[in-house]
Design brief:
Largest sheet: 6 strands, mixed
Structural class: alpha/beta
Shape: elongated
Number of strands: 6
CATH topology: Tetrahydropterin Synthase, Chain A
CATH architecture: 2-Layer Sandwich
Number of domains: 1
CATH class: Alpha Beta
Strand content: 35-45%
CATH superfamily: 6-pyruvoyl tetrahydropterin synthase/QueD
Number of helices: 3
Length: 134
C-alpha cells in the first residue's frame, strides 16, 4: 500500500454551545488539515496521485466553506446578530468540532474521487482529531 499526505492550512472561528469549559465562548483557530490518500498500485507517473491535485481539491472546499468563516451549530442564538451585520458564517447541523470538520473535508475529497484514507485536523499544535472510514 502506498500513501501520500498533503497539508492545508486555514483559519476559522467557532464556539461549542453548552460546552462546560472555555470552548463555549467565541474563539478561533489556525489549523492544519492533513489529508492522506492511499492506493495499492502507483499510477502511470509512479505516484499515488499528484500533491497539487489533492491541494486544489481540499483548498477549493476550505476556501468556499471554512477558511475565515464562523462555524456554528444551527441553533446558536448568535446567528440572527451575524445575519443583521452581514457577517460570514456557516450553520451546521452538528457542533463545529475538529472531528466534524475532519469528516466534512474527508467526505468532500472522497466525493471528488480520491481514495482518501484519513483526514487529521490539527486544532492546536498539540491536539488533533482524525476521521477515517473502514
Amino acid at each position: 500500500m502506498y500513501a501520500i499526505t498533503k497539508e492545508v492550512y486555514f483559519c476559522y472561528g467557532h464556539r461549542l454551545m453548552n460546552h462546560p469549559g472555555k470552548c463555549r465562548h467565541l474563539h478561533g483557530h489556525s489549523v492544519k488539515a492533513a489529508v492522506t490518500i492511499t492506493r495499492k498500485e502507483l499510477d502511470a507517473q509512479d505516484m499515488v496521485c499528484d500533491f497539487a491535485d489533492v491541494r486544489e481539491c481540499v483548498e477549493e472546499y476550505v476556501q468556499r466553506f471554512l477558511d475565515h468563516n464562523f462555524l456554528l451549530h444551527r441553533d446558536d442564538p448568535i446567528i440572527p446578530l451575524l445575519e443583521q451585520n452581514n457577517e460570514r458564517f456557516l450553520a451546521l447541523q452538528e457542533h463545529p468540532t475538529a472531528e466534524v470538520l475532519a469528516r466534512m473535508i474527508y467526505r468532500h475529497v472522497q466525493s471528488r474521487g480520491f481514495p482518501v484514507d484519513q483526514v487529521v485536523l490539527w486544532e492546536t499544535a498539540s491536539a488533533n482529531a482524525c476521521y477515517r472510514e473502514d
